[in-house]
Amino acid sequence: MSTPTLRPARAGDMARVADIWHESWHVAHAGHVPDGLTAARTLEAFHARTPARVDDTTVAEVDGRVVGFVMVAGDEVEQVFVDPVHHGSGIAAPLLAEGERRVAAAGYAEAWLAVVVGNARARRFYEKHGWRDDGDLPYEVTAGGTTYVSPCRRYVKSLADRTSTAGTNDPSAPTSPGT
């Protein structure tokens, strides 16, 4: 397999992002979140969500085809998904690193993400890459007009080394917005 190339998403990528998000989300979440949430996460729902997220998204391409993506919102690495056909191929690690880089570049000293409690594979992956479990996170999710509580763990990672090079070398400068 070729090495993935990362780049900012374009509007034309978002249908493929939605397809990956839908399939990978169901692989990772089915049986670990409320049944109503699983039922509401249709392919059409993902296609409706993704166009507004193009500016938040970085994609990974292999041989010219989008095979994964990361979405960042503020200090949260909100979504990291890889086409299940490419699981275990080394695509997720550079996507995660890019998410961390984007959070640090925005001036945050720490990034966080939510992991569904039952998603042991993702939890091992994040821990392998220096993230630590910071405790329970009852993550509220609205889908299909209904709000669900998804049982998650909050994972965090210090980005202090990265924020010092993200925009300033002044150690007295704030490292997160609002500080």
- In the CATH hierarchy, the architecture is 3-Layer(aba) Sandwich
CATH topology title: Aminopeptidase
Strand content: 25-35%
| Overall SS class | alpha+beta
If you had to describe this structure to a student in words, what would you say it looks like?
Helices cover 33% and strands 32% of the residues. With 179 residues, it is α+β, with helices and mostly antiparallel strands. It has one domain (5-163): Gcn5-related N-acetyltransferase (GNAT) (Aminopeptidase, 3-Layer(aba) Sandwich). The strands form two sheets. The protein has a four-stranded antiparallel beta sheet with strand order 1-2-3-4, with helices on both faces. A three-stranded antiparallel beta sheet has the order 5-7-6. It is globular and about 40 Å long. 30% of the residues are buried.
Summarize this entry quickly.
Helices cover 33% and strands 32% of the residues. The protein is α+β, with helices and mostly antiparallel strands and 179 residues long. Residues 164-179 have low confidence and may be disordered.
Key phrases:
179 residues, alpha+beta, Aminopeptidase, 4-stranded antiparallel β-sheet, 3-stranded antiparallel β-sheet, 6 helices, 7 strands, 33% helix, 32% strand, globular, disordered C terminus
Summarize the helices and strands and which ones pair or pack:
Blueprint: E1 5-8, H1 14-29, H2 35-40, H3 43-49, E2 57-62, E3 65-73, E4 76-82, H4 92-105, E5 110-116, H5 120-128, E6 132-143, E7 146-158, H6 160-166
Antiparallel strand pairs: 1-2, 2-3, 3-4, 5-7, 6-7
Helix pairs in contact: 1-3
